[in-house]
Amino acid sequence: MPRIPCEGLRTRASPRRESSEITEEAPGAGFFRSLPPLPLPPNNWSFPGDDHPPEQHDCLKFCLFSHEMAQDTLDTSLNFEFWLNKAVAWGQATTLESQQDVCLHLPQLQKFLQQIYETLKHMDFHTAIQRFPLIGQLLGRLCWNPFVIGYDENQKILMWCLCCLYCSEPWNTIELEVNIWIRSLLCHLLSSSKLGLNEVGTVSQALGYTSPDYYPKLLKNMVLSLANELRVNHLNGFSIGKTIPDKQIKAMSLLCIPLLTLPDILPLLEALLTYQGDESKEILCSEFLEGVNESFLQKKIALSESAVLSLWLRHLPSLEKATLHLFENLISRHRNASPEEMECFIKDSLLPQAACHPSIFRIVDEIFWNALLETNGTSEVLTVIQVFTRCFVQAFQKNNDQLKFPLKSYFPYTSPSLIMVLLQNPKDLPRGLWCQHLNHISEILKKIVEDQSTQSCRSLFEHWFLFIHFGEWADIAAEELLMLRAESPATLLWLLAFYYNPHDQNQQRTQTMVDAAEAHGHIMKLFGRTPLSVKDLQDVTDTRHPRIQRLIRHLLLNFLLLSPDGYKIAQEFIITQTDEIASELLNLIARITYRWNRLGVETQRPAKLAKDLLQELQCYTMKSEFL
Amino acid sequence: MEVLLEQLERFAEVLAVSRTRHASSWGRVAVRRSLCWARYLRHVHGRFRLRGPVRAALEGRLRRLRLRPAPLGGDAAPAAPCPESGPPLSFEGLGCGEQLLALGLLENASLPSPALHELLQRLRPEGPAEPSEEGLGNRLAELARRRAASQLLRPLLGSGPAQPDPVLRRTEAELLLLRLRQEAEAEPGAEALLLDRLWQQLPQPRWLAVVAEALLLPPAPGPRGAACAPDEDDPGSPSDLGPAPAAPLLAWLLSRPAPLAALCRLLPAPLLASLAGRHADLAEACLDLLWDWAGHLHFDLTKGAWVGSDPEGLTWERLRDCFRCFCQAPAPLSLQARIALDSCRARDGGFEAPGLSVWTDLERELGVEEPPGEG
After folding, report:
1. B29 shares contact with chain A (CB less than 8 Å)
2. What segment(s) does the record annotate as region Disordered (chain A) (predicted)?
């Protein structure tokens, strides 16, 4: 399987272990000791440990901080200390530094909280306190940090944790006070009556509405107001002068990071992404852009096309990540995807539409180029490039309303005449003219390739790479060769030879052409032979011509699909091949059926047969992988 | 059908009780049952939300419940919902009945621990026994998330603690109009009662700001119920409120001299001008009022200015500011204002010299000597 170059992908480092700032608790400290001086509910309760000596309350013994117990599962405990330190340092996330730090750690924090909950859910209060003596501090502090609460599922998990700790039948003061504390913290999380906002409840409460009614509305109005301000700010920028300074816009993007997957925020996200400052420097903070991209790739938010385009235009790493993500999907995760399914994935990714912008196209192309080099031009990658280009051309031609860029901006290092001739869609040409067109392509390419005096090696590959994009024509060439419709098979053979062996020097190329012609002749002779055996096929693909194996296989495969005798032994033959070659052949079959379907070619019977063959072979390969 | 209505009544009582000290007698079973009812009625709401007759019947019964004296030993005022017992149940409220119940129980300090424990267990993913119970925890968490989001975004809106928060006002205005529509559907004339009560209850500047905002909300984009079904998440969005959502509010304002007077006296002049520009009736009423008040101003020779006899009443400055804003407003209002000025001045005797007619001086101050239609 081809390895996908993944240099563009970033991995997040796991949290560094920092030194613990927590000193060992005195005996009898219990759950409440050193709760943070945050605006907690107004009830002033004295901490149980203050008034009563420890031995009078057995339960307090459970609350003793036990170092030994903590050492058991080192991982979670040390992490606990780490996160508690973080929570203390963050406070309510009022400073820029604390906000940035919170945003950096949000995904890991959620995972950690999930782990904590998994542990807590089997415990009651006492066991929990033994296990995590400082759980109260942690939960309390986190619940007062709006960045933490606003992120993804944190608020849910924190709520669950608090529900776990609630004592169902409190039989002493501690448990009663724990219950009160939990209740007030839950109220703080969920309810309106203890809001920190200025009298927001007065009118709404007088009207008889509660938080489920007005928070969605309030949030919606906030988002619309901010999005509007951004738009106006942008318009005013040149004449009246901005009302919102750039620094505040950066702060806005930071504040949105925890809220990315909240659907209500979408208008603000779009307004931020499409906002253009005056400076060439990026205003939005990079964590925001990364976060948006990540959420988009995981399909957690539904951004509009223009917003995604803006994102990728202003943040290169996001574009790279999106392309690699697509590649991974197509090659690794959905290995047996047919080109039709690939088309769906590709269109969903919005990359072809975005690639109508030349700078984006060039970056995506660069990644394709690298993939091609790393995998030595394996068939899967060629197919991906081909299908992507088809989707891109569709998007490009549909893109009527916006400014169309000249074709040269997409392929700047190649000859324009070649671009034009390759761009021709076979669907728009009558079938009889395909050969003529192929000849035309071949002529142009030949001229470019043989004009070595002015061409560099790089230029050669550029032209080859361009040809790869429209590799459909090479597939058609192979077919036409088999159907004997070509007037001069040599021209078509040259095309195929160039497709598979672009780096041939003059002498080598002559030799290649001779070998290819011989192989072609050999295969054509197979048409008349009955009965056809697998050995006959193997004779063709033996190592007489080691350098054009792929070309030969391509021709042979076409033969197998187009000749009834060949079809009968196709499966048998393919099974005898190595895994790599078999998957290459399968990929070719998929490409061929895809093309036949699209072009409405009247080879209906072969098309159906090819599809059946493909299915059978795929089942076979899957079975053999298990064994 | 009758059974359903009875169940509805029962649940409304339950919801009311859940917020009072009477909930101290609740145990686990009570909580479980009440959540069950809430869930059942949520399904009812979902089924009949778009079906006229059944929905109307349910709303009718809920309306009657609201007007009934609270079933709490008569210690609540009959016409007003007891603030301790929380908001009256509406049909829309059935849709989030579970959340309302859960929040009510959570906020109720007198609920005993086992009962609250029962509720809290149901918020966890392992808690509920039946799959249909899932979702309450999720919905509450969503609420928490939205709350945090508003808290995060609020500093960006740029309003300090001293300034009124426009987004808040707008939200309150939308809620006001929503409530008015619900009251109007329930019973004609109920809106006026509600508005009277709010006028009494709320601090004036606050109330007036909300009223002003409500009257300035943009009208609905299209005919009611045109494009899509009413937005479930946002029932009070302008498109859902119909073509003239503020009509009852305007009618009330015009029929109540005290609020109208307060509006004219206290609202910032530019805001008053926007209001008047939007609603012609209001413009007329304001101008009448201003004319009436201006009659109480007399010229104090020692100070060389117009003063009012009543220290609380209209001042010369206020009169001037109002008229200035009116005259600077777009077409119909500015015209109206100038015509009013001219006619008042003529009525007073058409003097040119200062100090004789308040209207002359006003016109001179504002520089509107020219006949209307020019400048």
Report:
1. no
2. 1-34
Q: pLDDT tens across A27-46, in order?
A: 223 555 544 444 433 232 22
In DSSP notation, B146-214 reads HHHHHHHHGGGG---SSS--HHHHHHHHHHHHHHHHHHHHH-TTHHHHHHHHHHHHS-HHHHHHHHHHH
Q: Is the pLDDT of residue A48 over 60?
A: no
Residue A81 CA, chain-centre distance (Å), reads 33
Q: Which residues of B touch A216 (CB under 8 A)?
A: 146, 233-234
The shortest CB-CB distance from B167 to any of A215, A222, A265 is to: A222
- CB within 8 A of B357, min separation 6: which ones? B345, B348, B349, B351
**CA distances from residue A312 to A317, A320, A347 in whole angstroms, order as listed:** 8, 9, 16
Cβ contact A138:A81 at 8 Å: no
The helix or strand, by DSSP H or E, that contains position A252, with its residue range, turns out to be helix A246-256
DSSP for B178-191, written as a single string: HHHHHHHHH-TTHH
d(CA A464, CA A385): 13
Residue with tokens 């499409």: A274
Distance between CA atoms of residues B30 and B325, nearest Å: 60
Instruction: Record the pTM.
Output: 0.79
Q: Give residue for tokens 């009423």.
A: B285
- Contact call for residues A497 and A548 (beta carbons, < 8 A): yes
Tell whether B73 is within 8 A of chain A (Cβ): no
Beta strands at B305-308 and B297-300: parallel, antiparallel or unpaired: antiparallel
- In degrees, rounded to 5, the angle at the alpha carbon of residue A427 between the alpha carbons of residues A426 and A431 is 70
Q: Out of B100, B121, B206, whose CB is closest to A163?
A: B121
Asked if A203 lies within 8 A of B201 by C-beta distance, the reply is no
Task: Tell me which amino acid residue A334 is.
Answer: H
- Tokens 């990026």: give the residue: A282
How far is Cα B91 from Cα B7, in angstroms, rounded to an integer?
A: 14
User: What six digits make up the tokens of B40?
Assistant: 């059942």
Q: Which helix (H) or strand (E) holds A361?
A: helix A358-374
When mean pLDDT is compared across A152-161, A538-547, B32-41, the lowest value belongs to A538-547
Pick from A30-34, A202-206, A441-445, A587-591: least confident: A30-34
Complex ipTM, two decimals? 0.82
Q: Where are the domains of chain A?
A: 7-190, 213-350, 509-627
Q: What is the mean pLDDT of residues A280-284?
A: 84
Q: Is B140 on the interface with A (CB under 8 A)?
A: yes
Chain B residues within an 8 Å CB radius of A200: 168
Buried b / exposed e over A292-318, threshold 16 CB at 10 Å, is bbbbbbeeebebeeebbbbbbebbeeb
- Flag whether pLDDT at A8 surpasses 80: no
Least confident segment among A23-32, A68-77, A364-373: A23-32
Is the separation of the CB atoms in A126 and A132 below 8 Å? Answer: no
pLDDT exceeds cutoff 90 at A270: yes
Query: DSSP letter at B300?
Result: E
Question: What mean pLDDT comes out for the span B178-198?
Answer: 81
Query: b/e string for A488-522 if b means 16 or more Cβ within 10 A?
Result: ebebbbbbbbbbbbbebeeeebeebbebbeebbeb
For residue A617 the two structure tokens come to: 């072979």
Contact A272, A226 (CB under 8 A): no
Q: Evaluate whether A189 touches A157 at the Cβ level (below 8 Å).
A: no
Closest-CA distance, A108 to chain B, in angstroms, reads 18
Q: Is B204 on the interface with A (CB under 8 A)?
A: no
Contact B179 A168 (CB under 8 A): no
Q: Copy the structure tokens of residue A383.
A: 């197919």
C-alpha pair distances (Å), B245 with each of A166, A271, A540, B209, B236 = 46, 29, 83, 17, 10
